[in-house]
Structure formats: C-alpha cells, structure tokens
Amino acid sequence: MPQPKKSKIRELAMQILFLWDTHNSSDTGMARQVTADATEDVELREAALETATAAWEHRQTADRWVERVAPQWPPHRQPAVDRNVLRMAVWELVNTPTPPKVVIDEAIELAKHFSTEQSASFVNGVMDAILKEHRTLTSAIPLTDPPA
User: Fold this and answer.
1) Number of domains in the chain
2) What predicted TM-score, i.e. pTM, was given to this entire model?
3) What percentage of the chain carries pLDDT values higher than 90?
4) What are the angstrom distances between the C-alpha of 74 and each of 3, 48, 52?
5) Is position 78 within any domain?
6) What is the CATH classification number for the domain harbouring 31?
7) Cβ–Cβ < 8 Å for 8, 35
8) What is the 3-state secondary structure (H, E, C) of the chain?
9) Burial environment of residue 143 by CB neighbours within 10 A (0 to 12, 13 to 18, 19 or more)
10) Does residue 146 belong to any structural domain of this protein?
11) Residue 25 falls inside a structural domain
C-alpha cells in the first residue's frame, strides 16, 4: 500500500529538518538533493521543503514550548530525530488546519519509524501537553471582535 501523500511530505520534511539541524544551516541545495534522492514527485518535494522551512523558521518557539512541558528533556538533550519531529509537529499543530489528532499520530509514527524505542511515547506525551496548552490559550481568545 503506497504511503499517503501528506505522510510522505512529513517524512521528507523531517529528514530535511534533521539535515539542517545536524549542519546548523538551512541549506536548500542540500534539502533538494535529499528529497530528489527520495522521490521523483516534484510537487511532493516542494511541499516537504515548504513544511521544513516553516518549521525551521519557528524552531526556537517550538523548542521553548517543548522545554517548558518537558524540562527534564530539553531539545539539546533529545535525539535529533525527536527534536525535529517535535519542531515540525508543533509548527503544524499551531499553523495549519490539520486536526490535532492527525498531527500527533503522524509525529508518533515518524518517531516509531526513525528514532529510539522510547521516542514514540516521549513525542506523544510532549505533544499531548502542548495540545492541552494550545487549546487553553486559544479558547481564551474571543472568536469575534468585542463590541466597540
């Protein structure tokens, strides 16, 4: 069964983030090479690069949030795969209309597939805590403008 397109985009985006994280540089040339080696689908590669770029640009915000909900495992102590799965998941949770359950499930699957045995439960716990905080923060914001 072929991998659904959005899952493949997330997988490639996570690999780009991992690459940029290990080189401490958002080199799009390197990213394009990695994605070209992974798939011939140009649209999929571009979507992965867009996702990775957005998550990379927001990585400090994601890292601070992760550190707040998991102070015993700050990003610099996490396996690089976990750190980048979380960066992407936090960005997607906050900045896209993707249902939170999908974001978290996809992050868990990436952690299971690419990281350590404990990573899936770690990612699940962190993302659950972030989702709860995010819901609390966004429910406090009125959806309509207050009366003048």
Assistant:
1) 1
2) 0.89
3) 82
4) 32, 26, 21
5) yes
6) 1.10.940.10
7) no
8) CCCCHHHHHHHHHHHHHHHHHHHCCCCHHHHHHHHHHHCCCHHHHHHHHHHHHHHHHCHHHHHHHHHHHCCCCCHHHCCHHHHHHHHHHHHHHHHCCCCHHHHHHHHHHHHHHHCCCCHHHHHHHHHHHHHHHHHHHHHCCCCCCCCC
9) exposed
10) no
11) yes
Q: What is the rounded CA–CA span in Å between residue 23 and residue 29? A: 13
pLDDT in tens, 11-49: 999 999 999 999 999 999 989 988 988 889 999 999 999
Question: Could you tell me the residue range of the domain that residue 59 belongs to?
Answer: 5-139
- Reference 13, options 62, 56, 66, 75; nearest CA is 56
| Structural domain contains residue 148 | no
The CA distance from 18 to 11, in Å, is: 11
Instruction: State the amino acid at position 129 in one-letter form.
Output: A
Structure tokens of 113?
Answer: 């597939």
